Amino acid sequence: MKKLGMIYEGKAKKVFKTDDENLFIVDYKDDATAFNGLKKGQISGKGAVNNVMANIIFQMLEKKGIPTHFVEQLSERETLVTAVKILPLEVIIRNVTAGSFSKRYGVEEGRVLARPILEFSYKNDELGDPLINDDHILALELATEEELEEVKRYSYIINDNLKEFFLEIGLKLVDFKVEFGKQMDGKIILADEISPDTCRLWDAVTNEKMDKDRFRRDLGNVEETYQEVLSRVQKKG
Ligand code: TMP
């Protein structure tokens, strides 16, 4: 597989074309940002942790019936994936209150929600990824009704499986963000990544934060925490 020109550089990953139009290569970076890029830094080893962890989780989800972009890990930081067009939606599922939800609705962090909440943001850095709802998505034609229903159905299934997976390695899944892409034939599949950058994970015993909040909030032990999460995931995966 030949790695050709870069087609996209995001805050945490680069995406390259290959000599097969149906395949891309993603290359994970150590760069870390928060607050829509206002806070910038590096988390040494993060690219490798997120690549390996996302690949283990995507393979687990495939077995549970969720189609994903994962094809094959190529190196510590690089993975061959199905070429998709990313839907301009960030899907966030919350099981426990935290982060922007706590701020927006004035609810203390750590309250177990009576049922999971699914939120959408419009993926647009210039606008700061504003919250949107189903009507916005359909009226602005960001996705069709069928695509939207599929995205929601997959997201709840992903939540159920991730909650169980993480609990078995002593981590509470507080909330997470996923992104979906459209294959050339129109099929919707899970894309992007699932990692400590995109999930809030609290130690099931101590409630210690085991995710990117350590970087966002300057809590220290950032690199060590990413390594610890990966080593638990690898033991299970
Ligand atoms: P929030 O509480 O800041 O809205 O974040 C909710 C979840 O989404 C949390 O697990 C972190 C993840 N997230 C991303 O993956 N990317 C983002 O740009 C943001 C804002 C949050």
Give the secondary structure arrangement, pairings included.
Blueprint: E1 3-9, E2 13-18, E3 23-28, E4 31-34, E5 39-42, H1 46-63, E6 70-73, E7 78-82, E8 85-86, E9 89-96, H2 99-105, E10 112-122, E11 131-132, H3 134-139, H4 145-167, E12 171-182, E13 188-191, E14 199-203, H5 213-216, H6 222-236
Antiparallel strand pairs: 1-2, 2-3, 3-7, 4-5, 6-7, 8-12, 9-10, 9-12, 10-11, 12-13, 12-14
The structure holds thymidine-5'-phosphate.
Residues 92, 98-101, 129, 175-177, 197-200 line the site of thymidine-5'-phosphate.
Bound molecules: thymidine-5'-phosphate
- CATH architecture grouping of the largest domain: 2-Layer Sandwich
Full CATH superfamily name of the largest domain: ATP-grasp fold, B domain
Task: Look up the CATH topology of the largest domain.
Answer: D-amino Acid Aminotransferase, Chain A, domain 1
The tally of helices reads 6
Q: Strand fraction band?
A: 25-35%
For the largest beta-sheet, the strand count, sense and barrel status come to:
7 strands, antiparallel
* Strand count: 14
Q: Report the end-to-end length measured between terminal Cα atoms.
A: 26 Å
Mean pLDDT: 98
Shape category:
globular
Helix and strand element order:
EEEEEHEEEEHEEHHEEEHH
The amount of helix comes to: 25-40%
For this structure, what is the CATH class of the largest domain? Answer: Alpha Beta
Label the structural class: alpha+beta
Number of domains: 2
Radius of gyration: 17 Å
